[in-house]
Amino acid sequence: MSSQACVPVSDYASRPLASGDAELEEHGKPTGLHPSHTAAREFVKRNTGLLLILAAQGFLSLMNVAVKKLHDIEPPVSTFQVRLSSYSFRLLQTNLLS
Question: Which residue has the higher pLDDT, 11 or 34?
Answer without folding.
Answer: 34
